From TrEMBL:
UniProt keywords, alphabetically: Cell membrane, Membrane, Transmembrane, Transmembrane helix, Transport
Compartment(s): Cell membrane
Topology versus the membrane: Multi-pass membrane protein
Similarity section: Belongs to the nucleobase:cation symporter-2 (NCS2) (TC 2.A.40) family. Azg-like subfamily.
Protein name according to UniProt: NCS2 family permease
Subcellular location, principal: membrane
Residue ranges crossing the lipid bilayer per the database entry: 24-47, 67-87, 94-112, 118-137, 149-173, 185-207, 214-238, 258-278, 285-308, 328-350, 362-382, 388-407, 419-442, 462-483
Gene Ontology MF annotations: purine nucleobase transmembrane transporter activity
Length: 484
């Protein structure tokens, strides 16, 4: 039996209606759209580790960035490998954006918690996740999600992806009056113009039914950027007094963004640093930090799994993902391993939707992503080979396609429209999947009871709604800061 046939049998290609070529293309697509984290995660965490409270790591900022890049690659590879071989789902995993910012800027630099103690909180969170997953508690909670919220998650994630993508493409810019606006220098900015050209090229290839259309769109746009840069053009630089902000970008790939040295590969100062983080810890304050990490990661992961699975057609008639405990366990293992190695919480990436749209349906897609993360250890991260603005055209393309899932919602029923609508709107505008789910879950029992539809409300709905209210009180009411 050949390797290709063995892979087909192990990953159930025939049952899922896929093949090896499709899965490989899907894996490459997912990797290209999420690999920016290899550059972004070190830039966020290194500042907290070098400048924040905690043990002196004895390395310069560039060296710590390189160390965290290595840790990011290893933790992403391990977590995604578990997803591939155990859960057999096409989802990529890596240290999560938002969670790493909370780790660095709020917990370490803002509240003055030593960075090794913050890592200890991540490890505890991961262990708690594993125990709850093994007991079936996480799967039970996700099944409690009201049906309109489950069906709305995909559309909300789509809008969320669109904002992320359009911002990276420099099509939109911040504005002090309206918060967001069309770039006022669009026609002067080669990055923005090429991004839109690449986006429409991707749409055309997809409409034509070209296999790997998203990959071709990303790579084709990257090549255009390189050609234009050789002609002497560069990204538009915003004057200090312009009154708007564009995302940082360059036309050509920044292959020297991270040049590894021997010190960069020595991650021993980070590995196991969490153990010393348990000393001299205030139990109540530590528990609040763990609770915050836990809450956001739980619902971010749940929302991503449900939303991307809806695109893939994995959900059953009740909106549930069969055997969801397996991808949840992969997420829990990834978080635990990441904390032990020295990075913030690992989570399932919404960019996995890009690979799913390319036809990825099995763990083979995730296996390709994991292998590419491993290969990236050998040289400058492959993320640097493609400009972020070029890779993010995939997010906008996927966002448009994910909106089609909104037809599953019964918009004529106001008690379904309210929680679904809030879920969809709050996600992009708060930049959080978890907050969108919170809006839907809190509103669902309220509008159902107001309409007299008591039979549709279960005690678990009230428990979830109360838990979210408690979370927001801890997160935004100054409780966490007051405990430290």
């Amino acid at each position: 039996m050949g390797l290709q046939q063995q892979l087909a049998e192990y990953f159930n290609f025939d049952e899922l209606g896929t093949d090896l070529r499709t899965e490989v293309v899907a894996g490459i697509t997912t990797f290209l759209t999420m690999s920016y984290i290899v550059i972004v995660n070190p830039s966020i965490l290194a500042v907290a580790i070098v400048n924040g409270p905690g043990p002196d790591i004895g390395r310069s900022l560039p060296e710590v960035q390189q160390m965290i890049a290595v840790v990011t690659l290893i933790s992403a590879a391990v977590a995604t490998l578990v997803m591939a071989l155990y859960a057999k789902r096409p989802f990529g995993q890596a240290p999560g954006l938002g969670l790493n910012a909370f780790f660095a800027f709020t917990v370490v630099l803002g509240l003055g918690v030593p960075w090794n103690t913050a890592l200890a909180a991540v490890v505890v969170e991961g262990i708690v996740f594993m125990l709850l997953t093994a007991a079936g508690a996480r799967e039970y909670v996700i099944k409690l999600f009201p049906e309109p919220v489950k069906f709305a998650v995909g559309g909300g994630i789509g809008l969320f992806l669109a904002i992320i993508g359009l911002e990276a493409m420099r099509v939109v810019a911040s504005d002090p009056a309206t918060y967001l606006q069309f770039s006022p220098v669009f026609a002067q900015d080669p990055v923005a113009v090429l991004s839109v050209v690449g986006l429409f090229l991707t749409f055309m290839l997809y409409a034509r039914g070209v296999p790997g259309s998203i990959v071709f769109g990303i790579l084709g746009t990257s090549v255009l950027g390189w050609i234009v840069s050789t002609l002497g053009y560069s990204a538009y630089s915003v004057p200090d007094d312009a009154g708007f902000v564009l995302a940082d970008a360059s036309l050509s790939p920044a292959l020297d963004t991270l040049t590894y040295s021997a010190a960069g590969y020595d991650i021993s100062p980070l590995v196991g640093a969490f153990l010393s983080g348990f000393s001299n810890v205030d139990a109540f304050a530590f528990a609040l930090i763990v609770f915050t990490f836990f809450f956001v990661d739980f619902f971010d992961t749940a929302g991503t799994l449900v939303g991307v699975s809806q695109v893939a057609g994995f959900l059953d008639e009740d909106g549930n993902l069969p055997d969801i405990d397996k991808p949840l366990m992969a997420d829990a293992v990834g978080t635990t391993v990441g904390g032990i190695l020295g990075t913030s919480t690992v989570t399932t990436y919404i960019e996995s939707a890009a690979g799913v749209e390319e036809g990825g349906r099995s763990g083979m897609t995730a296996l390709v992503v994991a292998v590419l993360f491993v290969f990236s250890l050998a040289a400058v991260p492959l993320a640097a080979a493609v400009p972020i603005w070029a890779s993010h055209i995939a997010l906008v393309a996927i966002a448009v396609l994910m909106l089609r899932n909104l037809v599953d919602i019964d918009w004529a029923d106001y008690t379904n429209a309210v929680p679904a609508g809030l879920t969809i709107l709050v996600m992009p505008f708060t930049y959080s999947i978890a907050y969108g789910i919170a809006a839907g879950i809190v509103s669902y029992p309220l509008v159902k009871v107001a309409a007299g539809e008591y039979d549709d409300v279960r005690p678990g709905h009230w428990v979830l709604a109360t838990a979210f209210v408690a979370y927001f009180f801890v997160r935004t009411g100054g409780v966490l800061g007051g405990a430290l």
